[in-house]
Automatic annotation (TrEMBL):
<keyword id="KW-0687">Ribonucleoprotein</keyword>
<feature type="compositionally biased region" description="Low complexity">
    <location>
        <begin position="129"/>
        <end position="143"/>
    </location>
</feature>
<dbReference type="InterPro" id="IPR047859">
    <property type="entry name" value="Ribosomal_bL17_CS"/>
</dbReference>
<dbReference type="GO" id="GO:0003735">
    <property type="term" value="F:structural constituent of ribosome"/>
</dbReference>
<dbReference type="GO" id="GO:0022625">
    <property type="term" value="C:cytosolic large ribosomal subunit"/>
</dbReference>
<protein>
    <recommendedName>
        <fullName>Large ribosomal subunit protein bL17</fullName>
    </recommendedName>
</protein>
<dbReference type="InterPro" id="IPR036373">
    <property type="entry name" value="Ribosomal_bL17_sf"/>
</dbReference>
<feature type="region of interest" description="Disordered">
    <location>
        <begin position="123"/>
        <end position="179"/>
    </location>
</feature>
<keyword id="KW-0689">Ribosomal protein</keyword>
<dbReference type="GO" id="GO:0006412">
    <property type="term" value="P:translation"/>
</dbReference>
<dbReference type="Pfam" id="PF01196">
    <property type="entry name" value="Ribosomal_L17"/>
</dbReference>
<feature type="compositionally biased region" description="Acidic residues">
    <location>
        <begin position="144"/>
        <end position="179"/>
    </location>
</feature>
<comment type="similarity">
    <text>Belongs to the bacterial ribosomal protein bL17 family.</text>
</comment>
<dbReference type="InterPro" id="IPR000456">
    <property type="entry name" value="Ribosomal_bL17"/>
</dbReference>
<comment type="subunit">
    <text>Part of the 50S ribosomal subunit. Contacts protein L32.</text>
</comment>
Amino acid sequence: MPKPTKGPRLGGGPAHERLMLANLATALFTHKRITTTETKAKRLRPLAERLVTFAKRGDLHARRRVMTIIRDKSAVHELFTEIAPLMAEREGGYTRIVKTGYRKGDNAPMAVIELVLEPVNPKPKSAKKTAAAAAAAAPAAEEAPAEEPTTEETEEVVVEETTADDAATEESASEESSK
């Protein structure tokens, strides 16, 4: 279990809470999606994600560690053979909690907790990462021989020369007109 809770436990004592979470995890791995109260779903998430991480390892020791929590062999088999291969590329976030409203009898907030079985879509690289890659390639460019100035630099030089010539012709024209 990740972090022990402060305050009242789900269902009374800590042993009952462990059993309840184990049964919820068994139902989650068997049905891939269950409806429960929001509190139970939030408490189940870290346990379920840890068990999926064990299943991704796939070795005998991981299977035995999962079997100490989930006592149903068919649920453990399904976790290791069907669910773990689907989660192979995913680096976390194996479960999703969706709030569904309130229960009719006691107005308890309800939620659906489900396994995220969709394939992972990698995010595009950000501008910072591409700038870092360009900076890494810059030392290789410095080793290359010096190139001729670009067309933008040559245009600036040409523009400056023409303005100097124009200024000289204007001065000579003003001298001639003043004579």
